[in-house]
Write a structure and sequence with these properties.
alpha/beta, Rossmann fold, eight-stranded mixed beta sheet, 10 helices, 8 strands
């Protein structure tokens, strides 16, 4: 990527997202940093900005599809194109709850929000010579089950099942988008078991440092390999075959159709 390419990092206010944004800024990117609130995004941008480079803050609560749908207006006020979109924001709900949009909370933030935001940002992505979309998934997808007709998991909900299903959905989205947008590069990754707030709160354990967790995201955003292939899954900066259910094209299409139907009111003017 040439210097001054523009990157959007979602969930940039702490953990892996913050480390990713910091590293991309060091590498010469113009960084747009997303946070859940205006205060958190502004604090993050002030923390990262240097005398040579100013980080741009944008904000939206990913549990609200209305806020997600209006986020592109903030972004387009600062740039005419996006070279890299890094879908990093994520969470794990510790109890079953529905958002105001009628979506299970973890699935809303981890899957529906990045799906909607990416589609609404397609004009900016397609304005770049060869944009990259990088989706942060997880190795937990391997044990997940996903029924597009029952994404809310009300019958047998658990925090882990909701999280792993959302990460499988990220991979199926990667597969679908890569086929729909052959001019872009769309890839996904497992960042490793990293000591983040999500890992501590959701899994009660610790792991590696956040700079290690950012490494594969940065690799896909900057490397020649990241510019040459699409629809793939990476671990430790190396391509790896995901679980079989993540390669199920019929499941990916069913999920895409269901997602578009669930988010219809937020897709005005978007080519789905």
């Amino acid at each position: 990527m040439p210097a001054q390419s523009t990157v959007l990092v979602t969930g940039a206010t702490d953990g892996i997202g913050l480390a990713t944004a910091a590293r991309l800024l060091e590498l010469g990117f113009r960084v747009i940093a997303h946070g859940r609130t205006r205060d958190s995004a502004t604090t993050c941008a002030n923390r990262l900005s240097t005398r040579r480079a100013t980080v741009i803050p944008v904000w939206a609560d990913f549990s609200s599809m209305q806020e997600v749908a209006t986020l592109p207006a903030q972004i387009s006020a600062h740039t005419t194109h996006l070279d890299v979109m890094l879908n990093n924001a994520g969470m794990i709900a510790t109890r079953y709850e529905m958002t105001a949009d009628g979506l299970e909370h973890t699935m809303a933030v981890n899957y529906f929000a990045p799906w909607l935001l990416t589609l609404r940002l397609l004009p900016l992505l397609l304005a770049a010579p060869q944009a990259r979309v990088v989706n942060v998934s997880s190795m937990t997808h391997a044990g997940a089950e996903l029924d597009p007709a029952s994404l809310d998991g009300a019958v047998q909900w658990s925090a882990y099942a909701a999280y792993s299903s959302s990460k499988l959905a990220n991979l199926l989205f990667t597969l679908s988008l890569s086929k729909r947008q052959p001019g872009m590069r769309v890839n996904a990754l497992h960042p490793g078991v990293i000591s983040t707030k999500l890992l501590r709160q959701g899994f009660g354990t610790s792991g590696g440092n956040v700079s290690d967790g950012a490494r594969t995201s940065v690799y896909l955003a900057t490397s020649k390999q990241g510019a040459s292939i699409s629809g793939r899954y990476f671990v430790n900066c190396k391509q790896q075959r995901p679980a079989r259910n993540a390669l199920d094209e019929a499941l990916a299409e069913a999920l895409w159709d269901t997602t578009a139907e669930r988010l219809t009111e937020h897709l005005a003017g978007v080519e789905v």
